[in-house]
Design a protein that fits this description.
- It is a single chain.
- By secondary structure, the chain is of the alpha/beta class.
- It has one domain (3-196): 3-Layer(aba) Sandwich (Rossmann fold).
- It has helices spanning 3-10, 23-29, 46-53, 65-78, 111-123, 140-143, 157-163; strands at residues 36-40, 57-62, 82-86, 99-105, 125-136, 168-181, 184-196.
- The protein has a seven-stranded mixed β-sheet.
- The longest helix is centred in the middle third of the chain and has 14 residues, at 65-78.
- The chain is globular, with a radius of gyration of 16 Å.
- The termini are far apart.
């Protein structure tokens, strides 16, 4: 989906996603000491806002103006400050070694663009910083619920690990989450990779 598609999707009063943060983000990062955090492809801002509520100094980047408008409203409603940047994460680069945490949540791009984003994400990590990547696992298309159906933009933890040379991999696995659908509860399969830049 391009910028115009996302602007149209986010062009509603209500949130497309819920306001609560992704559960894997909370599980993986809640115990870390707050510092500077970067949320790439932040969408409506729920994860960036949660990080800010935990005293992180957060920058959220997305190319959808409509998504960022919702993110700003959510931050205001929650009484937190986030620096919002309207930019294409494939091209945008942070200052090197400037963030203690970088998160890339459910960003699905063709492999070449994905590798470029992850290279930029890794370069933005300060020594000892943590990168968290979560997305719909390739197996979800046939065995799970929701998510993109285009195999060209899906990945498994193995592909993400291959994209992150130079980082120490702390966790790389397929994980499941429960999704509520019109037909009841179903299971979705995600890929999760947590990596650290050596100090």
């Amino acid at each position: 989906m391009n910028r115009e598609d996302w602007d149209e999707r986010y062009g509603t009063e209500e949130l497309i996603w819920k306001a609560d943060p992704n559960r894997f983000l909370v599980e993986e990062l809640d115990a870390l000491v707050p510092g500077r955090a970067l949320d790439l492809a932040c969408g409506e801002g729920r994860n960036a806002v949660w990080l800010a509520s935990k005293r992180w100094r957060v920058t959220g980047v997305d190319f959808s103006r409509a998504g960022l408008a919702k993110a700003r409203r959510l931050a205001a409603d929650r009484g937190v400050e986030v620096t919002w940047v309207e930019a294409d994460v494939v091209e945008w680069q942070a200052s090197p070694a400037s963030f203690d945490v970088v998160v890339v949540m459910y960003l699905h791009l063709p492999s070449e663009q994905r590798r470029q984003v992850l290279a930029h994400a890794a370069a933005a990590l300060a020594p000892g910083g943590t990168l968290l990547v979560v997305g719909h696992d390739a197996s979800n298309r046939l065995h799970g619920t929701g998510g993109p159906q285009d195999t060209a933009v899906l990945f498994g933890p193995e592909e993400i690990v291959e994209d992150l040379s130079g980082l120490q991999i702390e966790r790389a696995e397929r994980v499941t989450r429960t999704v509520v659908t019109d037909a009841g509860e179903a299971t979705a399969f995600d890929a999760l990779v947590r990596a650290v830049r050596p100090s």
